Amino acid sequence: MGDFYQNGIVTTLHNLSRRPLEDLEAELVSFSKSRPMALILPCLYSELETEAMPNILEHLKKVPYLSEIVIGLDRANEAQYHHALEFFSALPQRHRVLWNDGPRLRSIDRELKGEELAPTEPGKGRNVWFCMGYVLASGRAESIALHDCDIVTYDRELLARLIYPVANPNFNYEFCKGFYARVADNKLNGRVSRLLVTPLLRALKRVLGNLDYLDYLDSYRYPLSGEFSFRKDVMTDLRIPSDWGLEIGVLSEMKRNYSTNRLCQVDIADCYDHKHQNLSPDDDSGGLSKMSIDIAKAIFRKLATNGIVFNHEAFRTIKATYFRIALDFVETYRNDAEINGLKFDVHQEEQAVELFARNIMKAGVYFLENPMEAPFISSWNRVASAFPGVMQRLHDAVEDDLRDHGGPAQDKL
Question: Which helix (H) or strand (E) holds 178?
Fold first, then answer.
């Protein structure tokens, strides 16, 4: 059971009473009459063949309050797209599968790229961006939740608690971030959040002084969670990274666009586990190595937009400060694990800290050497301004793909 402590400048909504799921869902059904709800699922085709996705599907089939489920399908050929339509046909809710690698959506993508308005690289950020565009084009939802498709401990209570803060008309929240304890298989997980993000934020505070942005990020209990919800208007002005900086980028955008009293975080699960990335110490293009570089770059970029000036000496100081703080955190987590009877490998934890310290420096050097990089995907407001008919084209492309492959009944805007 969680406590009721409010840490930082973002409201925390706890799980204090173990409220029955039926009560939550009954309220959400009532809310849906005036505030219809949707769910975005960014998905790799390979995730359909894991144990996680079929279980998620079984739980979603029982959700009574969703007006629409939008699935962004990546890395799928035509036969795999057809299979995905069959797989998701079990959903009783209206649902749409975006074939991101299909010729119609690729054609729109190429046209937008010609004006430097489309994502520059594949990945979750690109998938989420196109799904958001479709939800805006569809116009069927006022409150939207998003979660990953590799959650092996999924329960539909996670979705109910995640979307409730932005669906309840008595609340004024525009955005809600999910959090949970990353404990599974009798050990602590979540190394990037525990051993990179939090120690890095504390190091930046020590080097740069107290900054509102750093206090804000440090208020989130699990800033890298892939689960969040928001009101429809949030999507129009959102500019997000296409790489592993997505979650930090979204939090940064919310801080830029809204007062912090319109943002919150909510406890969505007692037990949470998903697919784990390898540390990949010898490969900066994959695993936790790439993730740590992308996340550090996202934080440095945002600080630069707030007027912070960086140089090589600053990054060396940040790295050294981070390293000492992170090693102290290893000891803290070792003690936390021991009192809870959890396994804890100090050697592996310190290997991760050493990698992250090197990658903080790599991210800093990359930032200094690429000052003109445009790291964010354009907002849908800008895209619609440059291409006035793009929302209709996106909607029709999805519907035409469904028609040609025997998907659910199509509709028109």
Answer: strand 175-180
Q: Residue 34 in 3-state DSSP?
A: coil
Q: Tell me the C-alpha distance between 303 and 248, whole Å.
A: 12
Straight-line distance from the first to the last Cα atom of the chain, in angstroms, rounded to the nearest whole number: 46
The three state secondary structure string of 251-274 is: HHHHHHHCCHHHEEEEEEECCCCE
Q: What does the alpha-carbon distance between residue 383 and residue 133 come to, in Å, rounded to a whole number?
A: 10
Greatest CA separation for the chain: 60
Task: Kindly report, residue by residue over 239-283, the tens digit of the pLDDT.
Answer: 888 777 889 999 999 999 999 999 999 999 988 877 767 777 666
Q: Are 402 and 96 in contact (CB under 8 A)?
A: yes
Count Cα neighbours of 274 within 13 Å in the Cβ-side half-sphere. 21
Instruction: Please give the model's pTM, rounded to 2 decimal places.
Output: 0.93
Task: Please state, in angstroms and rounded to a whole number, the distance separating the CA atoms of residues 2 and 180.
Answer: 10
Backbone phi, psi, residue 101, to 5°: -100, 5
In which region does residue 116 sit, left (phi positive, over 0), alpha (psi from -120 to 50) or beta (all else)? Answer: left
Q: Which residue has the tokens 């190595």?
A: 289
